[in-house]
Amino acid sequence: MAKDDRLAARRRGQRAETLALIWLSLCGWRLRARDLRTPVGELDLVFTRGSTLLVVEVKHRATRTAAAEAIRPDQQDRIRRATAWFLAGQPQFSHYQVRFDALLVSPGGWPQHIRNAWD
Asked: What pTM, to 2 d.p., does this model score?
């Protein structure tokens, strides 16, 4: 992928994350981290509400199907490890129930929020 293509893809991803952030904030979720890069993986968005810690993977692709297929099992494992790393440094969330959601974004449509996208 050319440098300009990577930059354009990164910008689309940032806009999709901003949309997800607004969407979930309006649903009562409180943002705790965004674009968190850890030694073991990256977390797009981390929220809390009540006693739930919500980890959201945001994918922007040409279609929702392509976005869903982009969240492969190896990526889910990296997200789990990054979440464990995050929790190790945030003891106030140690008793929270962790939930992994996906927010799929494609041009010309509303985002699709998939709750409990994986365990």
From this structure: 0.91
